[in-house]
Amino acid sequence: MKTGTMRPGRHLLYAAVAFGLLALPAQAEWTYGLHPVLGLSAHIDLGDGNAIGLACNRREYNPMYDAFVSLRVTNGLLHEGMFLVVFDPPSGIRQFSQIERPRQTAGYTEWPGNSCETYVTEIQQSGELVTAPVIFRSFGDTDDGSFIEYEYGGATLRAFGDDGYRALPEARRISLRGSSNAIRQLIAACPSIRLDIENNCGI
């Protein structure tokens, strides 16, 4: 996993994950239960046959093994190898992570990892998850502030600050309503996630 940090902002935490997300219509709220594609998970149905969720990857806690939970998205959400996610949490922290070597099944792609790598806390505490069908390239700082550099429509562009991240081309907003309760049920059914959170992801 490659990680880095950016200058703290007012509202956003963002993450770029290898694989991409497409258009999202009206959605329900997050729930815990059996999804027809993602399986038993805390998830949200996006209303077009696609879904995003978190699932238990390993119930038994072992500090030598750190993939206790899996971030899962249906394969219809992939976009040219990039999955770009922007969180609107209550904290002012902004962080970048890129998860490598995802696993693909017949219906979904998943990224196994610890509770930090799969954004368990961010999904629980954030108000929205924003995504866009762009190809993430890099991030950095200039005199104008923090930015992400991305490709869209054959052009290389930059988005600066909170407003710029929210205004990415074809940006889609995914509700995180109900996610805290759904993830609490997931954690209750998967003790390793609770212990991983208590141990700060083994850091």
How would you explain this protein's 3D organization?
With 203 residues, the protein is an alpha+beta fold. It has one domain (2-202). Helices cover 15% and strands 40% of the residues. The strands form 4 sheets. Strands 3-4-5-6-10-9 form a 6-stranded antiparallel β-sheet, with helices on one face. A 4-stranded antiparallel β-sheet has the order 2-7-11-15, with no helix packed on it. A hairpin with a 2-residue loop joins strand 12 (135-142) and strand 13 (145-152). The two termini are 14 Å apart.
Structural category: alpha+beta
What's the β-strand tally? 15
Low-confidence stretches: 1-12, 19-24, 90-100
* Rg, Å, rounded: 16 Å
**Net shape:** globular
Strand portion? 35-45%
Main sheet?
6 strands, antiparallel
Let me know the average pLDDT: 78
Distance from N terminus to C terminus (CA atoms, Å) equals: 14 Å
Comma- or semicolon-separated keywords:
alpha+beta, disordered N terminus, 203 residues, 40% strand
Task: Offer a quick outline of the entry.
This protein is α+β, with helices and mostly antiparallel strands.
Question: Helix and strand layout, with pairings?
Answer:
Layout: E1 2-5, E2 13-18, E3 31-35, E4 39-45, E5 51-56, E6 69-74, E7 82-87, E8 95-98, E9 103-104, E10 108-113, H1 120-125, E11 128-131, E12 135-142, E13 145-152, E14 155-160, H2 161-166, E15 172-175, H3 179-189, H4 191-198
Antiparallel strand pairs: 1-8, 2-7, 3-4, 4-5, 5-6, 6-10, 7-11, 9-10, 11-15, 12-13, 13-14
